[in-house]
Amino acid sequence: MHKSDVIAHFGGKSKTAKALGIAPSSITQWGEIIPESRAYQIEHITGGALSADHYRNKLKTA
C-alpha cells in the first residue's frame, strides 16, 4: 500500500490522520510503502477499498 494512494483516498494528510486517530506528523514519517500494521488498519477502515495485499504477497513468497 502506497502512502500517496492512502492520502488521495482520504483527501489529504490531515484527513488521513484523523481517520486513523494519529497525528499528521506520523504520516510524514512513513516511507512510500506504509507500515504493515497501518496497512491492515486502513484496509479494515476502507472496507477493502485499499488493500494490504503487498504484505500478504510478501508472506506467501517467504
Please tell me about this protein's structure:
This protein is an all-alpha fold and 62 residues long. It contains five helices and no strands. The chain has helices at 3-10, 13-20, 24-29, 36-45, 53-61. The model has no long low-confidence stretch (mean pLDDT 92).
Concise synopsis of the structure shown:
This protein is mainly α. It is built from five helices and no strands.
Main sheet makeup: none
CA-based gyration radius:
11 Å
Helix content: 55-70%
- The 3D shape can be described as globular
| H-E string | HHHHH
> Structural class, from secondary structure content?
mainly alpha
Annotated CATH topology: 434 Repressor (Amino-terminal Domain)
CATH homologous superfamily heading:
lambda repressor-like DNA-binding domains
Low-confidence residue ranges: none
Judging by the overall fold, what is the CATH architecture?
Orthogonal Bundle
Beta-strand content estimate: under 5%
Domains, number:
1
Distance between the termini: 18 Å
How many strands in all? Answer: 0
Round the mean pLDDT to the nearest integer and report it: 92
Q: What's the CATH first level?
A: Mainly Alpha
Number of helices: 5
